[in-house]
Write a structure and sequence with these properties.
alpha/beta; Rossmann fold; 9-stranded mixed sheet; 10 helices; 23% strand; binds glutathione; Esterase-like; S-formylglutathione hydrolase; S-formylglutathione_hydrol; cytoplasm
């Protein structure tokens, strides 16, 4: 635990919502992450499943823990929940704060290949290697390494899907709220991938769930996708869940798409359906 500093700890739903900071070797900066320990983590005999939650554009590790109300469901199911930040922090790169959909708080959970981003913007390796290993090692007394799932929202939904599809077997369950499903084909993705990866579109496909699922040959997996019908980013074609569903169908990968009439892109929508997502993860991770 030497490498972790406790930033905050609050009792909620019988467990503890904590935030830690640590020096990241992948990102070369200090990072915060949240971790919720349900009541079962205290003095329990058995190790608990973990679900990672990835937030969207403009977020830190705080939005989900303060707005979604997920702790009630994590406590019911006895699931530990880990939430990383959305980009490197405190690293000054020219242009990193010029727009809300690129640079700071918009790391897209990928490893940048293009200068000047490639030195720090390595959120893919940070999440799937460094933070993943850190959580398993630092909390080994309560974490079951064989029962790890992942979920996310918007850019974080994209992150959850590509992390699962690129690392077969690492995450046993995956779900997403309003994910960016086909970044190669939407304005957010085109901007981020051009900036972080360059102009070679064959490199883009390596970080695009709709492209990756076409070649998925890992353990059986069902993708749970949730989408608000009144989400302006959905109607503006930033999210494109239908493209992912079509690719899943042609690749034979089971997918569930829940369209929620009248709901927008906000945490009001996430708070409404987060319980269903915890039921989904619990069913798989606790089977
Ligand atoms: N700043 C954007 C909105 C960004 C946005 O909706 N971000 C989502 C993720 S893509 C979010 O979770 N925002 C933080 C929050 O609602 O707490 C706008 O003005 O249109």
């Amino acid at each position: 635990m030497d490498q972790l500093q406790l930033v905050s700890s609050n009792k909620i739903c019988g467990g503890f919502q904590k935030v830690y900071s640590h020096e990241s070797s992948e990102l070369k900066c200090k990072m915060n992450f949240s971790i919720y320990f349900p009541p079962q983590a205290e003095g329990g005999d058995s190790k608990l499943p973990v679900v990672f939650y990835l937030s969207g554009l403009t977020c830190t590790e705080q939005n989900f823990i303060s707005k979604s109300g997920f702790q009630r469901y994590a406590a019911e199911h006895g699931i530990i929940v880990v939430g990383p930040d959305t980009s490197p922090r405190g690293v000054k790169i020219e242009g990193d704060d010029e727009s809300w959909d690129f640079g700071v708080s918009a790391g897209f959970y990928l490893d940048a290949a293009k200068e000047p981003w490639s030195k720090h913007y390595r959120m893919g390796s940070y999440l799937n290697k460094e933070l993943y290993d850190l959580v398993l090692q630092a909390f080994s007394s309560v974490v079951d390494p064989n029962r790890i799932g992942i979920m996310g929202h918007s850019m974080g939904g994209h992150g959850a899907l590509v992390s699962t599809l690129r690392n077969p077997g690492q995450y046993k369950s995956v779900s997403a709220f309003a994910p960016i499903c086909n970044p190669c084909a939407c304005p957010w993705g085109e901007k981020a991938f051009t900036g972080y990866l360059g102009d070679d579109k064959s490199k883009w496909a390596e970080w695009d769930a709709t492209e990756l699922v076409k070649h998925y040959d890992g353990p059986p997996l069902t993708l749970l996708i949730d989408q608000g019908g009144a989400d302006k980013f959905y109607t503006d074609k930033q999210l494109l869940p239908e493209n992912l569903v079509a690719a899943c169908r042609s690749a034979g990968v089971p997918v569930i798409l829940n369209l929620r009439e009248g709901y927008d892109h906000s945490y009001y929508y996430i708070a409404t359906y987060i319980g269903e997502h915890f039921d989904f993860h619990a069913k798989i991770l606790k089977a």
